[in-house]
Design brief:
Layout: H1 2-9, H2 18-49, H3 66-95, E1 102-109, E2 112-117, E3 122-124, E4 127-131, E5 136-142, E6 147-151, E7 156-160, E8 166-170, E9 176-182, E10 194-200, H4 202-212, H5 221-231, E11 257-259, E12 265-267, H6 270-278, H7 296-299, H8 302-313
Parallel strand pairs: 1-5, 4-10
Antiparallel strand pairs: 1-2, 2-3, 5-8, 6-7, 6-9, 9-10, 11-12
Helix pairs in contact: 2-3, 5-8, 6-8
The structure holds copper (II) ion (CU).
Amino acid sequence: MFERFAEFFLPPQRSTVAAEVDGLFHFIHISGFILFIGIVATIVYFAIKYRRKSEDEITPVISHNTRLEIAWSVIPTIMILIVFSWGFRGFLNVNTAPSDAFEINVTGVSWFWEFEYPDDGIMLTDELVVPVNQPIKLNMRSEDVIHSFFVPDFRIKKDVLPGRNTTTWFEATEVGESIMFCAEYCGTEHSAMDATIRVVSEEEYEEFLEEEAVDIEDMPLAELGELTFQQQGCQSCHSVDGTDMVGPSMQGLYQSERELDDGSTVTADEDYLRRSIVDPRAEVTAGYPNNMPTFYGDRLSDREIDALVTYIKELQ
Ligand SMILES: [Cu+2]
């Protein structure tokens, strides 16, 4: 019964800390509700009982009531101490990852998330794949502004800051998909800054690692370009079907005349495409904000950049 009641108000409990967080939430919620009813009922009762009954009625002088004063000091103090110790225990629990946790690096970029598996050389953007019943520690930082990593099903939320590392952790308790999103308003595409967390069994996780570790050296350039385009979050700002997003669409870009914000024009040849990726702030297309991330030059290999250029050229 209580479980049903809990899930009526809150998302499913899918991590080891969820039940404790919810317990405290319901304690505060229900005791607040009981107090509210009690206080309102007392107000109504007193208003009726002690209403002015005649013109010359005089109120008796009562200076204090010791028993009542002790009661209304001690009871709330006890309740606050319960909430404090319960909350503090939860706070420590949520902030201290178990020492055997598996680590994943998370980077918030306006407006997508990157999940990097340092030991396996895997980088994902639109989903995070993790094994069930295994503590996962997230080392998080932001590439630009303040973002916030929020997974309602796991009851975790932590700010992700530029120039500083923050961490959080979770242990998923069932196989399935949960949604995570940015909970700090961070600009135009903030509402699209989400990702799926796919919790899989131990065996499926092994399979996932094998699949992801595809030999990129053997991949045809255009295919690698498409993969890189998705894995590097390009698609969160650029469409490939002509739709205008934060940045211009990549469709039909190759060989077109681009007008820059200093009034000059250039032809979008291979070299321009490459320059736009490795040094995006040098030439800014008119009518668009100058906010493409500048890290791609360092991050991508020459082959990956060639692959992106090949892929964009084919989007006619
Ligand atoms: Cu954000």
